[in-house]
Amino acid sequence: MLPTDYRIHRVQKTLRWFEEDIPLLNMRVKDLSAERQRSARQFAAALVSHTRAELDRLLEERPQARYEPGDVPCEPAD
Fold this sequence. Notes:
The protein is 69% helix and 0% strand. The chain is mainly α. It has a domain of 42 residues. The radius of gyration is 16 Å and the shape is elongated. The model has no long low-confidence stretch (mean pLDDT 86).
């Protein structure tokens, strides 16, 4: 299992990626029907919401911080 700090870092990165992709999503779906646009946006919103909930859960599970605020934990080698 991955260390909690690493998992938190990855979920934060994923959440940022999803949130930054919203304007691009709007451009990608603009040629679709209104119903499909709405469906795509609802799916994206649900994905962001689920990711935020996962981040909150991980932050609550986090053991006492071993790093200084702002430190990024090392990623494991492949």
